[in-house]
Amino acid sequence: MKEAQEFVWMGAIPLQIHLHESEVTTVPPPPPALILAPRIGYLPLLLPLIKPYFSSTLPPGVDTVWFEYKGLPLKWYIPTGVLFDLLCAEPERPWNLTIHFRGYPSHLLIPCEGEDSVKWNFINSLKEADYIINGNCKNVMHMSQSDQLELWNSVVNANLEAFIRSSSKLKSGTIEDDYASKSSSSSQKSQKMIGEADTSVQTKTGKVPVRLYVWNVSADFGDMEDAPPIDSWDRISYVNRPLEIHREEGKCFTLHDAIKTLLPELFGKKRKPSEGENDEQSFGSEEETKNNRMTEEGEGNLSLPLETVSTADDDPEIKLLRIQGIEPKLETPISWVANHLRHPENFLHVCVYVKIPSAKSL
Amino acid sequence: MDESAWDGTLSASEFSASAQAFAEKWKLNNPAYPPWTWVKSLKVPIFATIKVEEGYLSLENVCIVKSNDDEVASCVEGEASLCDKEDEESTDSATLVQTSSGNDNAQPYYFDFHIIYSASFRVPVLYFRAYCSDGRSLGLNEIESVLPANSAKVLLESKWTFITQEEHPYLNRPWCKLHPCGSSDWMKLLFQAVEQAMELYLVSWFSVVGPVIGLSIPIQMLKEP
């Protein structure tokens, strides 16, 4: 477990940060700042490193810092690595960003008052994950202020050792590995990880905190380089739903299963045309859906039992799936993915590019 | 329902059903206000004939005026109904904007309220935003000044954990959000006190949450038909 975690924490994106031309008051303009940003960190935290490059050239006034990539204001509470994985179909190294110190787009972005805003957003996400995993926020609420601060600082500094120390007070739990729990199961199935034996705390609810960023790539592009840039956040579907893992005997709940569960709008079973008359019941009960062997469906917002009508060519397709900068095989067990690739606040952030055949989408 | 085992939360489909019940009762018992509408909202474009019902309750353009008595009067454009009936400054529609109290500082703010289901916490969450008559959005500080006195105090004491500015789950814009962390606890208490059908979840929930933002509900709404 620790090895994979180390790789995740060491992951970094080289940034080349340009000051927006409207804020340059000196000739010649200052050169861009070259910064190595931790993947698990957040852009506003880099300000102390960036500011010295530009402070002498800024116009007078109060700083209201925000970042932008190709005209898109960046949401500061999304981890840097996730922003990169999502917005750069073809990874750009270094990643060219523009920084602004004035003119905060407060109609689009929630305010950021420096490190404190980022910290509280992090703690709130930690609470949310705690709730999803344990059914309550007690673990986080019972952490003392100084412990919380220690945990936060370990994230700011991307210091894994310090993080492990601080988070031991926070029982984050892991997802029971399908195979590790069955001690008598045959070894060819087993995928024991180093340190797996230590991770004995199972999530009480069986739910995994996941945040999906879905981009519907309507134009078919062969090369990632040709992918159109994202010009508005309205083109991204942000799905913040806990993943409920359904275990079936002998079967592994894979990453692919997880995505299908989280996106019933795209991967749910389609209805046969003849069932149209069952439409009017818009507030279905959970009982119904459970009784209909909906092993692939997640948290219940499907209203009616559906039957499989599968037409492979016309189905939505996952074109790309990135987590922590890698493209894991879809057959990977979700327990491994979630336990090893989650962020410090215990959420698994997944970037998905899907292709939805436009003729069929509503 | 086994009261002792229930954790105070509800499922997405229970939320939808409860929202419908809430909207109906509101319409019946709160005629001075516009009705709550159910906004169907798609997180992800729906593919083919897959049917997914997801949405939230919306109440918009509610005008809230703070009179000089520190009472919050909420009303709708053209109509008025007061939270505190003992307030002598009962304004009728004609004098609303002028605020007959003669307080120059009392200007009308307009609120939009959305009740959105949180899949993480399995409870409803109140999102709201406020703006002036000229359309300018209000910041959190200004909103604080319009909230009932109690709420303003709690807000002051725990800046980051009570009402925060966050992104609207569907609209990609900054809204204010009332934190859901303790909701399931007090919902459990409410339901233990009076046994109720799950359908009434939202009514009970709103009886606690509403007054925080100056919207109280008539007592009739809490009674089962």
UniProtKB/TrEMBL annotation, chain A:
Q: Where in the cell is it found?
A: Cytoplasm
- Broad class of where this protein is predominantly found: cytoplasm
Residues in domain Autophagy protein ATG5 alpha-helical bundle region? 115-171
Instruction: Provide a Gene Ontology MF annotation, just one.
Output: Atg8-family ligase activity
Low complexity composition-biased segments: 181-192
Q: Name one GO biological process term.
A: piecemeal microautophagy of the nucleus
Domain named Autophagy protein ATG5 UblB is located at 207-352
One GO cellular-component annotation of the UniProt record comes to: autophagosome
Keyword Ubl conjugation present in the record's keywords: the answer is yes
* Ranges of residues in domain Autophagy protein ATG5 UblA: 8-101
Skewed-composition ranges (Basic and acidic residues): 287-296
Check the UniProt entry and state the signal peptide residues, or none: none
Key words of the record = Autophagy, Cytoplasm, Isopeptide bond, Transport, Ubl conjugation
Where does the source fall among the domains of life? Eukaryota
Region Disordered: start-end pairs: 177-201, 269-303
The yes or no answer to whether the keyword Transport is present is yes
Q: How does it assemble?
A: Conjugated with ATG12.
Family stated for the protein in its record: Belongs to the ATG5 family.
The record's function comment reads: Required for autophagy.
| Name of this chain's protein | Autophagy protein 5
UniProtKB/TrEMBL annotation, chain B:
Q: Where are the transmembrane segments?
A: 200-219
**What is an example of a GO molecular function annotated in this UniProt entry?**
Atg12 conjugating enzyme activity
Q: Name one Pfam family in it.
A: Autophagy_act_C
Range of residues in the leader sequence = none
GO cellular component: a single term: cytosol
Please indicate which superkingdom the organism of origin belongs to.
Answer: Eukaryota
Alphabetically sorted, this entry's keywords are:
Autophagy, Membrane, Transferase, Transmembrane, Transmembrane helix, Ubl conjugation pathway
Task: Enumerate the InterPro entries for this protein.
Answer: Atg3/Atg10
Gene3D superfamilies, A to Z? 3.30.1460.50
The GO annotation for biological process reads: autophagosome assembly; autophagy of mitochondrion; protein modification by small protein conjugation
- Family per UniProt? Belongs to the ATG10 family.
Name this polypeptide is given: Ubiquitin-like-conjugating enzyme ATG10
**Which species is listed as the source?**
Linum trigynum
